[in-house]
Amino acid sequence: MQLQKTLAQRISCEGIGLHHGEPVRLTIFPAPANSGIRFIRADLSGRPMIRASYCQVVDSALATTLGVPGATISTVEHLLAALAGLGIDNARVEVWGPELPILDGSAAPFVRLLRRAGVRALRAPRTYCVIHQALEVVEGDKSIRVEPAWEPCLSYAIDFPHPLIGRQQLSFRMRSEKFCREIAPARTFGFLKDVQALQAQGLALGGSLDNALVLTKAGLLNPDGLRFRDEFVRHKILDVIGDLALWGWPLHGHIRVTKGSHALHHRFLEVLSQRPQTWRLSTLGWPSGTPAEGGLSAPARLKLALA
Which domain holds residue 83? Predict the structure, then answer.
């Protein structure tokens, strides 16, 4: 049995918001067991609280946005991925602004911040969501599937008609040190023509070569190049880790994603919540020698037209 974790002490940082282009300040506080991750809009009257939950998703375009009546918080996926990667279950995140700072476009700065704060165990068992029947959500050529597995694993495949990307795929077993070293540093990316179109609409105003990989038709604008040859698919894994953290319990299964998106990740969690026969909660992991009684079950396959 593993124990839930939180921060050892509070810690703060500042940065620029990706879409509004305005300075943002945040402070992350320790939180009690079973409280989960909560965002506080400290700049608004009444300091509204927004839970890190798939039920609170109000927008999936470009980034993950959570909200309650009168308050939203955007671009939460990189911090959520850093918290999940370090095994932090409970934290209170106070934010002075409508979005989290983009920092360098990856989760690495958040990992360094959280490590400086330190991590401490709480006197409560950690609960896992153990998958015992496969479930797949399909939308056109995009899909996300989870199936029973001996240990948590993520496989992601992308395909972009660009000479630096093409078809990339990677499998990643959830280990904290491996996450910090191989996934957290991967930066968000976009195409120059799309960035210019977004900025013309008043979006991506904080975007720059300091916080994103920007692709031209044939190359990359960033003078320092890539951190990994397959940095693009690594960032997609980073995004899905952050998005799936909205489930509230770590998923114990093998998650396979093809050409995913924030919208597909969030829809998958909605479907998972509607199929409780495919999973169970446990503080002990697998109770027996096999991940599923009698082998893998046939997947529940859903074809969905996402709005």
Answer: 3-125
